[in-house]
Amino acid sequence: MTAEKLLFGIGGIVIGFAIGFLFANSVNRSASLGNVASVASNSNAALPPNHPPISQEGDDSSQGGGALPEVTAAIEKARREPDNYEAQMTAGDLYYQIQRFDDALKFYEIANRLRPAESEPILKMGNTNFDAERYEEAERWYSVALKKKPNDANVRTDLGLTFFLRTPRDIERAIKEYDAALAIEPDSEIALQNLALAYREKNDQPNLEKTLNKLSAVNPKNPVVLKEGGKENEK
After folding, report:
1. What is the pLDDT of residues 151-184, one digit of tens each?
2. Which of the residue ranges 43-52, 54-63, 87-96, 166-175 would you say has the lowest mean pLDDT?
3. Shared domain check, 112 and 124
4. Which of 52, 84, 112, 210 could tie 121 with a disulfide, CB 3.0–4.6 Å?
5. Whole-model pTM?
6. Where does 149-222 have alpha helices with state H?
């Protein structure tokens, strides 16, 4: 999901939610970009001195120069070798990076069929559906991932976000998942931040204050803490 889509307020907490949302998703997505970065890095290594680096973001074909040969080769390899798990994951990651989510899902689904015991394709199907704003489908895959790794606080937090962001929102279920994440990792800044935002949306001032106190103890410079602290000073 792009940053522009995140800049909406919850009772005036615009910055806090946007940063928190981005942070929450970055936790489970950093591994997805490794293969993409290595492809671009290999291309940059072959450039002459002082040549501007090739961008690692976006679809190069949209710039009029066509896709990088390495990218095309990686995707073609996945198509030629449907039983190659690593090739399917690499192709999925490449399509995910340029936000072609449906194409990414096709390769992740193949990888999941090849190695159903692996958690990574399942988690990436959750992340991809999440970024495509298909929150119910993201919920499905995060739930499957949590059956394999029930103590993953980051995935549990993202699961909570699927309930918070869907239409209509399910605030109570979001709070339940954030609480479950905090039971695993009590000092999780992002879970505390998202929980505070859920209580803010619910107009539950006592629990909001309790959560903000815990969040402040973890990071007094968290944007939600600063925003709410500023509002208190204005009273």
Report:
1. 999 999 999 999 999 999 999 999 999 999 999 9
2. 43-52
3. no
4. 112
5. 0.74
6. 153-165, 171-184, 189-202, 205-218
Domain that holds residue 206: 1-30+119-235
Q: Exposed e or buried b for every residue in 85-107, given b needs 16+ CB within 10 A? A: bebbbbbbbbbbbbbebebbbbb
Is residue 36's pLDDT more than 70?
Answer: no
Is residue 42 a part of any domain in this protein? no
Structure-token match 């993201």, residue found:
138
103 vs 64: CA distance, rounded Å:
21
Helix, strand, coil percentages for the chain (3-state, nearest 5): 75, 0, 25
137, 129 Cβ separation under 8 angstroms: yes
Which one has a higher pLDDT value, 161 or 4?
161
Do 160 and 128 sit in the same domain of this protein? Answer: yes
